[in-house]
Amino acid sequence: MRVNNRIRAREVRVIGPDGGQLGILEPQVALAKAQELGLDLVEISPTARPPVCKIMDYGKYKYSMKKKAAETKKHQHSTEVKEIKFRPKIEEHDFDTKIGHIKRFLGEGNKVKLTMMFRGREITHSEIAKAVLDKVAVQLAETVTVEQAPRLEGRNMTMLLAPKHA
After folding, report:
1. Are strands 156-163 and 111-117 parallel, antiparallel or unpaired?
2. Is the model's pLDDT at 147 over the cut of 70?
């Protein structure tokens, strides 16, 4: 959209502030009409033949578009993936603390990626790690859905949980 005197065509189709057509006018005449009404002449469609211009309050138009964009942005909710790291030899209290963190993240509407980290020869007993991840899934069964089952990726085993929607 171009405002006011940047219009280079010989004739332009003009739309009035009420939305009705004013006809095909010369740009200077259309600009004078807009100034007479105390408004701006805005080029809406420069590629049309003849170009289409509208008489409007451009500042008010920009403000309403900004408000509309903010309103649509306000209704969006982006989900994040939070990561909780475990070890195969995790103690009961540490496990309970991490379960509390997982519940909090899921309550906020985020997904949770559980990562079981292996050091040294721990990777040879990956069934212990899988049992810990399965224990998490069983404890939170009524509130979560398992999006990705436990899977070994290099020296880590990962599992992805998402909040269950009722």
Report:
1. antiparallel
2. yes
pLDDT digits (tens, 9 = 90+) for 44-53: 888 888 999 9
Q: Fold for domain 81-163?
A: Translation Initiation Factor IF3 (3.30.110)
Q: What is the rounded CA–CA span in Å between residue 71 and residue 8?
A: 36
Residues 78-114 as b or e (16 or more Cβ within 10 Å = b): eeeebebebebebeeeeeeebeeebbebbeeebbbbb
The residues, ordered by sequence, that sit 6+ positions from 145 with a Cβ below 8 Å of its Cβ are: 161, 162, 163, 164
pLDDT single digits (tens) 82-120: 999 999 999 999 999 999 999 999 998 899 999 999 998
